[in-house]
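Question: does this match?
>
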Amino acid sequence: MDIKSWKIMLAVDDYGSFTRVGAELGYTQSGITQMMKNLEKKVGFPLYIKDHHGITLTNEAKSLIPAIRTLLNADEVIHQEIAALNGAQRGTIRIGTYLSCSIHWIPKIIREFQQKHPDIIIQVIEGVDWIQERRVDIGFISLQKNHKYQFLPVMNDLMYAVVPENDPLAKEEEIPIEAFEDAPFIITEYTPGSDVHRILKKHKIHPDIRYVTRNEFSSLSMVEHELGYSILPGLLLRGQQGKFVKRPLKPTITRQLGLAYSSLENLSPASKTFLEYAKDFLLDD
């Protein structure tokens, strides 16, 4: 059982299609099928189920995923350590991030980092609940209660009430969070680390959720069209203009943004270099 086979199995879990996996990894569909069958023979039990919805891993296969990710991460570290000993710095870094960070921070950091380290490949994934699963190496996220990762704080990001420009609440200098109780509300779908869901729960506010969106810009557009209110982070709203107004919440509510990673010991050399660079960049920003 080689590293390549485990990479293919994880790709099957991610994409749910042998055709898509082949296109992403440069294999034919028949080649992917054969490698998965060979892997099943070696482990001694079925690894996937194929039906009209696509391909899903069996429960037994899913139970192996954490160990496989640890193995692949160690393999990447070894290759980067060897490259470093040979005087080169190369490798792949997987970054998980919020939409707001991917707009305002990530492009600047990557542009300047790759000017100095052109052989390091950076993959950006909008999603932050994968640090513990080792799907990403470093996360640009907000601090969450009972987190099981290392967290380096960078800034406090003010959360705002966002209302249509002609709404009576737009006349207020601050908007009490209680104003959203039973009020028409627009929110992004729940994911681990969702700040707005956490805020509403903490303050025991139960709005009338009319629409659930995939990202904050969709929520903002719906507010502009007078479909409801929302709460959005200041970093995302930076530079945004439209038929809406943002007002500080009362009481003042912030989220603490920073860099998250499983542990320094588990980071590859390339990831450690990027972490130090991103830290210096953001603290000087």
The mean pLDDT is 88.
